[in-house]
Design goal:
- By secondary structure, this protein is an alpha/beta fold.
- The chain has ten helices and 17 strands.
- Strands 1, 2, 3, 4, 5, 6 and 17 form a seven-stranded mixed beta sheet that branches.
- A hairpin with a 2-residue loop joins strand 4 and strand 5.
Length: 423
């Protein structure tokens, strides 16, 4: 590979804050709101032109999974736009997020890409960003990595592995889109891979595998908050590395090439969809899995199945299934469980999963916390990620206020603050 030696240059330090949150998905927004509510100077960065990540720019259909209390409950109450509270109106949600950030006193900077971490003697001091304004530096006392892929942590030197243990395969990518012109009263809406309803020409999941272009081949349909509009979670791109720009570009091509065949399939085989047409698609690729970081504790599938209640909890009452999309094709992976997932009590996530090894003054939030491939398939959903973000934001703020590193923060202080915020 050819290389180019970039000339050294001085970069302007454009801001210095107490808590810097990188990534404005549900975890990052929640982290920034929660840190700012603790009274510390907080800045939230994101590469997109809106906040919300997959919940907004990603055109996600609904909140799936659940968690006990916390900031997610507040987001849900303020943003729901129908009798079914878990259905997302992405345009309303964008505004609600911004209102909550503004009310908390958190500042936001969009259209800004984090390109490097500033690390001195094993401690993160800030990040280097790229934007229309050029290459600049933002310093902070504590940085929260809520980028999903853990871009900051990776650049800071936190050890990690990609994807599934052993072969490093990752869950497939999806580009969400919406169709209009649906007769909702006659529609069939399979909401899971294990739901295979009978339609006039056969069972829908079987028909999808037969007629949709590989690796598409499943039917996941969700009514939206708008009349006659349905969100489709049906495009599918396998062998995608969400940390690689070329791979992401390939995913965009693959998923968009599947959209019209999927719409044609819906018109042909699904009652109520005979006159449907595509009206919008996500501006952000849905990446389910990339880096798994090494933290002070690594959450496992066994922890979840045992409903473990950790003494050093940062999140409580998390609940979902093992939502492992097929790593080699359409549908549910053989390791996944949805309808067949056992009925168990909610589990907790220990604070150690948010505290990465090797680097000080850095916290993980969202799907990049320390967990196994199987555990990740459960905690990666947005309600759980929002409350992980809340815990990270509060922990970051308390670390600043108590002049300690996040690793040295007494967990009892964090728990007391989380309980107070929930009353």
């Amino acid at each position: 590979m050819k290389t180019y030696l970039e000339p050294a240059r001085e970069l302007p330090v454009i801001d210095d804050v107490d808590v810097l949150v990188c990534g404005a998905g549900p975890a990052g927004v929640s982290a920034a709101i929660s840190a700012a509510r603790q009274g510390v100077r907080t800045l939230l960065l994101d590469q997109c032109g809106c906040v919300g990540g997959i919940s907004t720019a990603g055109l996600m259909s609904h909140w799936t999974g659940s968690v006990k209390g916390g900031i997610f409950r507040e987001i849900l109450e303020r943003s729901h736009d129908s009798e079914k509270k878990n259905v997302i109106n992405p345009e309303k949600l964008k505004t609600v997020y911004l209102q909550m950030l503004d009310e908390a006193g958190a500042r936001v900077r969009l259209y800004t890409f984090v390109s490097a971490a500033v690390v001195e003697d094993g401690t993160i001091r800030g990040v280097i960003v790229e934007s229309k304004s050029g290459r600049q530096v933002i310093t902070a006392r504590v940085v929260v990595d809520a980028t999903g892929d853990g871009d900051v942590a990776a650049r800071a030197g936190v050890p990690y592995h990609l994807g599934r243990e052993g072969d490093h395969k990752m869950q497939p990518a999806t580009l969400m889109f919406k169709v209009a012109g649906v007769d909702i009263s006659r529609g069939i809406f399979p909401g899971s891979f294990e739901s295979n309803p009978e339609a006039p020409k056969g069972k829908l999941q079987d028909l999808a595998r037969e007629h949709l272009p590989f690796p598409a081949g499943h039917v996941l349909l969700y009514p939206s908050t708008l009349p006659g509009v349905v969100t489709c979670n049906m495009t599918n791109a396998i062998d995608i590395d969400g940390t690689d720009a070329d791979s992401l570009t390939h995913a965009e091509y693959v998923c968009r090439s599947q959209m019209e065949p999927i719409a044609a399939f819906l018109r042909e085989y699904v009652p109520g969809f005979e006159k449907c047409y595509i009206i919008s698609s996500a501006s952000l690729m849905g990446i389910r899995e990339t880096r798994h970081f090494e933290g002070e504790y690594t959450l496992t599938g066994e922890d979840i199945l045992a409903s473990r209640q950790f003494d050093d909890w940062a999140v409580r009452g998390a609940s979902f299934n093992f939502d492992v999309h097929n790593l080699t094709g359409a549908g549910l992976d053989e390791t996944g469980m949805q309808a067949k997932f056992p009925r168990i009590a909610g589990y907790s996530i220990p604070y150690g999963c948010l505290v990465p090894k090797a680097v000080e003054n850095l916290l993980l939030a969202g799907r990049c916390i320390s967990g196994t491939h199987i555990a990740h398939s459960n905690f990666r959903v947005m309600p759980i990620c929002a409350n992980i973000g809340q815990a990270a934001g509060v922990a970051a703020a308390l670390s600043v206020k108590n002049s300690v590193t996040p690793r040295a923060l007494p967990v009892a202080k964090l728990q007391e603050a989380l309980i107070r915020a929930d009353t």
